[in-house]
Amino acid sequence: MSNGITRLAPSPTGALHVGNARTFVINHLLARQNGWRVLLRIEDLDGPRIKGDSSAMIDELSWLGLEWEGPVVRQSERGELYRQALNRLWSERWAYPCICSRRDIEIAASAPNLGQASAAYPGTCRGRFADESQARQGGRPVAWRVIAPLAPMLFDDRFAGPQSVDLASAGGDFVVFKNDSQAAYQLAVVVDDSAAGVNRIVRGDDLLESCARQIHLRRLLGFDEPIEYWHLPLVIGPDGRRLAKRHGDSRLCYYRRLGCTPQRILGLIGFMCGAFGSRREADMNDLMEAFDIERMSRSPVVFGPDDDAFLAGRKA
Ligand code: GLU
Questions:
Q1: Residue 263: inside a domain, yes or no?
Q2: Domain assignment of residue 120, yes or no
Q3: Are residues 159 and 283 in the same domain?
Q4: How many angstroms does the Cα of residue 79 sit away from the middle of ligand 1?
């Protein structure tokens, strides 16, 4: 048994679809092939975008054959831990209160003397307030930002290769606590991964830039257990855009209602990962034997009409 610990971290912002199911299945396969422990964390912090409860999502993950160790962690129940991390960042002045609205930031970014380059937060509130209550005096809601590093963040991704992310230009100082007093995704993930001893992270490559923010935060918070990352290409529609509602219904619950089995979904995922040469049905064991991350394409995978027809049990 290795000492690897990974997590499945779904956000219940919508039902599971073919794209995020593929990432979770690959995460699960890598864990089983390498003897990592698997945890489940529900990322339910994102206020209005969270839809309903997470039990349907958990049910779908297990219907698909994914397994994890309990207990299930829910970010909405961990506000106190995130607050403590924020206090630590503030006590070392890595974080600062910010009262800028989106509009203020847009105006500052389009000021003629800043040129086009600066869509990044211009640092208006950095060093501006002695403490949170002073920031609150004007009655505006207060968020908290962390100072972005000046030098590019360099890290190696096990799948996507060497990365260099210049956070100062990619958004600049970033929000770690939102102005509704909820921790932002970046901070919550770092605190939770560290608390659970997570050291293997597998997720979509839309999070590569976030990963740089998370590595920066980990350093500031003194979390020094190294993490290995696999950022995987996303599933896209035939038009080259990220798979979404505009491409029709690709939710697992939709196919399930049409009589689709988990074996058909797993088989298609295997085909999309290069594990099988054609669309077929497979169970998790078949997939585990055939799956080799080294053979997986580095490019995004298209979910097209033939895939839809296969899942729906129609002739293409
Ligand atoms: N909750 C995120 C998602 O569903 C994953 C975040 C992460 O793995 O760090 O895409």
A1: yes
A2: yes
A3: no
A4: 18
Query: 277-310, pLDDT tens digit by residue?
Result: 999 999 999 999 999 999 999 999 999 999 999 9
- Integer Cα distance of 303 and 251 in angstroms: 12
Closest ligand 1 atom, residue 10 Cα: 4
Q: Which domain holds residue 156?
A: 79-196+207-230
Mutate to test the pocket of ligand 1, among 16, 203, 218 (most ligand atoms within 8 A of CB): 203
β-bridge mates for residue 229, sequence order: 201
CA distances for 233 relative to 126, 206, 230, 313, angstroms: 35, 8, 10, 26
Q: What is the pLDDT of residues 160-209, one digit of tens each?
A: 999 999 999 999 999 999 999 999 999 999 999 999 999 999 999 999 99
SS3 300: coil
pTM: 0.93
Shared domain for 49 and 127, answered yes or no, is no
Based on the fold, state whether residues 151 and 224 are members of the same structural domain. Answer: yes
